[in-house]
Amino acid sequence: MTAAGEETTVWRNARLATFARGAPGLGVVEPGALVARGGRIVFAGAEREAPAAPKSARIVDCEGRWITPGLIDAHTHLVYAGSRAAEFEARLAGASYEAIAQAGGGIVSTVRATREASEDALVRQSAPRLDALVAEGVTTVEIKSGYGLDLATERKMLRAARRLAAERPVTVRTSFLGAHALPPEFAGDRERYVAEVADAMLPALAAEGLVDAVDGFCETIAFSPEEMRRLFARAKSLGLPVKLHAEQLSNCGGARLAAEFSALSADHLEYAGEDDAAAMAQAGVVATLLPGAFYMLRETKAPPVDLFRRWGVRMAVSTDCNPGTSPMTSLLLALNMAATLFRLTVEECLMGVTLNAARALGCEAEAGSLEAGKRADLAIWDIERPAELVYRLGFNPLHARVWRGQ
């Protein structure tokens, strides 16, 4: 008698891209088979080597389709209220970011709308964005707070993220981003706000189980490395991993701070240099590249991909879904952008939304590759070769998506 939840499923007659650590290239196995039991992979390899399936097993003939790990979007801000489309239109007409901000736009407008929205409204507005990612084979997604900038609204955003995880077949990892910007009520008093984030907001939200990691925006227009160091020290004292928006608009020491605290990732990194790459490599910090923001802001300085390759820094690719600088809900589009704008190879792109993205979220032991013991999170594709996932624009070849074996 098979216990509930312990049913065996066998996907056979497949081509596997396992992304297994240490495997050559994408870890291709063909013809391959994958066996899952109780939501976990028990075998992924050559079909001729697959263990005998019990008579009660469900057998799925993949008819030669490709199976990859479920995709992972390791950097999103998808819980928010309102829209910034009017600002986009104004920028197209020549308005500067500064002029828009002075008129009450920019991040302040999203903060205002998010503070005014109820938790139910946040869930309702954010669910379609999450659904768009899920429809492309995403099985794990990171969701940040950071559009509240006060305890009540940051809590509301993180609770909304947890509710989305409960209402959708997807794994959600939350990041507390209270150090995203200086709220209007703290204008001119940065020190007091940093203390509020580190000593009041973070401990309260962590105690409620709402925080999986702590993030911040380290930049000349945001928070300094010294201010972020105070927050990261508090995060470490609470046993929470850290990550950081770093070197997006200038080089101000954020990547090296991330390395100092063994951060899961440093993200953006357009202005990172060789010292940054070396420090990140030594500390095992993933470089999360965000081509959507690069494209939307019409940037011209790309992240130093050659330096990351030279130093062996692992690279992830994410949507950076947010209302202001990357209103993108397609991880497949992000793959194409990473290849065309940043010159990543097909292998680097696909590793960037599987194994390396899992590393950037601290869940490499659970997701990101097709290996025994990991969650049975799969994407099954109607493609002839994995390069199609990077090559095509506006086309979704997903045949089926499996989350925890279902």
Strand order of the largest sheet: 6-7-8-9-10-11-12-13
Order of helices and strands: EEEEEEHHHHEHEHEHEHEHEHHEHHHEHE
Radius of gyration: 21 Å
Mean of the pLDDT scores? 96
Strands, count = 15
Q: Low-confidence segments, ≥5 residues, pLDDT <50?
A: none
Structural class: alpha/beta
Reported for the largest beta sheet, the result is:
8 strands, parallel
Helix content: 25-40%
What is the count of helical runs?
A: 15
Intertermini distance: 20 Å
The fraction of residues in strands falls at: 15-25%
Q: What is the approximate shape?
A: globular
Give the helices and strands, then pairings.
Elements: E1 8-17, E2 28-37, E3 40-46, E4 58-61, E5 66-69, E6 71-73, H1 85-92, H2 97-102, H3 107-116, H4 119-134, E7 138-144, H5 151-167, E8 171-179, H6 190-207, E9 213-218, H7 225-237, E10 243-246, H8 254-260, E11 265-268, H9 274-283, E12 286-289, H10 291-296, H11 305-311, E13 315-317, H12 331-342, H13 346-352, H14 355-360, E14 378-381, H15 388-391, E15 398-402
Parallel strand pairs: 1-4, 1-5, 6-7, 7-8, 8-9, 9-10, 10-11, 11-12, 12-13
Antiparallel strand pairs: 1-2, 2-3, 5-14, 14-15
Helix pairs in contact: 4-5, 6-7, 8-9, 12-13
